[in-house]
Amino acid sequence: MRLALFVVLTFVIHSVVIVMGMADFFPLLVSMLLALLIALPLSMLIFKKWRLRATEGLAEWDSGRRAHKQQLRRQLEERLDG
């Protein structure tokens, strides 16, 4: 989604540049850099719900992984002690 936001912003910015007749002085690369600078903080606001959901999913996965790791350690200790 961030990539799509970047592409849309680049298109909008460069379209405005072309309409204003400044395409010779404002190349596509500059439009892309400006779009990147705008897209980064804007995506943090627009996609906040998805970012939080992804963070929660990673936290759940990590806790499950840690629990599984502790269980394997306990089983290994039991086998080595027995």
TrEMBL record:
InterPro entries recorded: DUF4229 (IPR025323)
Name of protein: DUF4229 domain-containing protein
Organism: Corynebacterium anserum
Native organism taxonomy: Bacteria, Bacillati, Actinomycetota, Actinomycetes, Mycobacteriales
